[in-house]
Amino acid sequence: MPPGLVIALAGVLGLLVGSFLNVVVHRVPAGLSVVSPPSACPGCSHEVRHRDNVPVVSWLLLRGRCRDCSVRIPARYPLVEAGTGAAFAVTAWRFDDPVVLVAALVVVGAGIGLALIDLEHQRLPFAITRVATILVVLVVVAGAATGSAIDWTAVAVSVACWTGLYALLHYGSGGRAMGLGDVALAPVLGLVLGLVGWPAAVVGLFAGFVLGAVVLVPLRATGRIGRRAAVPHGPFMLAGAALGLFVGVPLSQAYLTTIGLS
Description:
The protein is mainly α. It has helices spanning 3-27, 57-61, 76-94, 98-121, 126-145, 152-172, 180-196, 198-221, 234-258.
């Protein structure tokens, strides 16, 4: 299949996944089913028509309002859809190995939903992490069964490092330094980054802490965030993993070249 077509199809898939993520972000934290009942307007409770459920396009045609009661539909919905579509397209552009591509798409989709939930509710639901982990494991197993080249050493070391560090931070601090949701998310991030290679895994692992420090230290120093205020680490963790996934290898190569080791 031509690369351009793969990228386009991935972008369309991302739009559809983004539409579903809007449901997930709203319902999962509330303990509601993501499949029933069908989506409805919060203002008039009228079920959303199929033609009004086309990602991005429907929101634009409706001018951001419900067809029945004209209540405003938050711009976050089309932004999540468009953002997920763009993220999927970039992922398809970056990776041509089928196993890495599919595994990365799973993590990218789940990661967007988890980041949004963590920012709003300060939690990473196990339900999403569990599904993402199962899907990635199935992708890797299927890839191995069909003869895909997988560096099992890199995968094992990456999973062990990601899981071990987050588990140590959680249990070593009695849960104060890191939440259990972060610990549950670490293995699947380590698995996918391990598929790309150990440089991606290392960059992704430490980039999350660096990004957190860059953002939070100035905010705490200026008093905009209290020193004891709880701040979700999930978005930084996921952003760091994304950096490792997409640019971890070239970043590590540039660093090694700079210090004369490559």
